[in-house]
Amino acid sequence: MRKLAVLMSTIILLLAGCGTSAYANAMKDATSEVENGEYEKALKSLDVALEEKPEDKEARTLYENIKALNQVKEAIDGTDWEVALTKAKNLLKEDRLAKGIKAEAEQYITQAESELAANKEDMNSKEEVVAESGTNASEKEEAVNTEEKPTAEKAKSNIAVSEKEVEANTEKKSIDKTEKANSELAASKEEVTNKEKEKAASEREKYLKKLNDIKKGLAEFDNALAGTQVEMTQAKGEIFKRWDTALNEIYGALENQLSTSKFESLREEQRKWLTYRDEVAKENSLKFEGGTMASLEYISTQARLTEERCYELVEGYME
Predict the structure, then answer these.
(1) Torsion sign over Cα 197, 201, 207, 209
(2) Nearest residue to 246 via CA among 316, 303, 319, 202
(3) Is residue 232 part of a domain?
(4) For residue 57, what are the contacts with CB-CB under 8 A and spacing of at least 6?
(5) Longest C-alpha distance within the chain, in Å?
(6) 309 found inside a domain
(7) Does 64 have pLDDT greater than 50?
(8) Exposed end of the chain (fewer CB within 10 Å): N or C?
């Protein structure tokens, strides 16, 4: 019996050592891949690290930073410069940000600021053209009125009258063009405003549908959740990732929708909630401290609380 106990202890130590080694190797690979700009590979390596240590803050922070950088890239690819600029600046506020991620975020900020400046300059140029055209038309109209005053010379010269009629027609066309340009500019601005209102109104329903679709899609894990403990832990880890991805997406949408003061308040609330979530997960896992159920309980609690938080943000903050 004593030999059997020693043998079992040795096996447990070897398994623990393998887990630690797998985590260390995965983190080493992820760090190297981030430095080389291979972010998709880095995410896969971090998945391995988080499977070994779901509660590890270093791996979780790096994972979330890469996801945030990917959101900046998506905004850049979609030429949504304001969103890209906001997300990139927020990413730079994170503590201990990897050099590669920081460098790319700074490049995206420069690109977004350049594009926004160019767009603003183009809009100002168009408005100046319209304003100048309106001023010239007014001056010409005044000149026409002055020239139309009866004079003896005008009455004697049919040629002069004809020339002034032609000039008056030309000026009228100029005025009409100016009015048309002003009307089109006003209509364009009104259309943009209406589209923004429609987008804000439908945002809440869109994200509620997304969350409900995620919940329905979790049925694919039913068999795994009724399987071995390893299968259950892996399934819960995947479920947590889905809710965590949804949470980051919702948070980014609110950043674009809320006023600066409201979003700053939400940012502080979100930081406190993240701490609360991890503390509750840790507390629940302590019931199984030293056992293999600890990791499963930790990741299960994170998944459940993150799902609840997704619905809270959508129903409580989105208009």
Answers:
(1) negative
(2) 303
(3) yes
(4) 278
(5) 133
(6) yes
(7) yes
(8) N
> Whole-angstrom Cα distance, residue 306 to residue 268?
17
Average pLDDT over residues 175-181: 69
d(CA 120, CA 127): 11
Ranges of H-type helices in the chain: 2-35, 39-52, 57-77, 81-92, 99-147, 152-156, 158-217, 222-225, 229-257, 260-285, 293-317
Q: Report how far residue 140's alpha carbon sits from residue 133's, in angstroms, rounded to the nearest whole number.
A: 11
Structure tokens at 80: 């949504």
Which tokens hold the place of 187?
Answer: 């209509």
Torsion of CA 110, 265, 282, 311, to 10 degrees: -90
Where residue 289 falls (left for φ over 0; alpha for ψ -120 to 50; beta otherwise) is beta
The rounded mean pLDDT for the chain is 81
Residue 165 lies in a domain: no
In contact, 171 and 144? CB cutoff 8 Å: yes
Quote the DSSP letter at residue 98.
Answer: -
- What are all long-range contacts of 104-112, with beta carbons under 8 Å and residues at least 24 apart? 104/37, 104/69, 105/69, 105/72, 108/72, 108/73, 108/76, 108/84, 109/85, 111/76, 111/84, 112/76, 112/81, 112/82, 112/84, 112/85, 112/88
Q: Is the pLDDT of residue 199 over 70?
A: no
The domain total for the chain is 1
Predicted local confidence at residue 78, as pLDDT: 87
Whether residue 34 is contained in a domain is answered as: no
Provide the residue range defining the domain that includes 281: 196-319
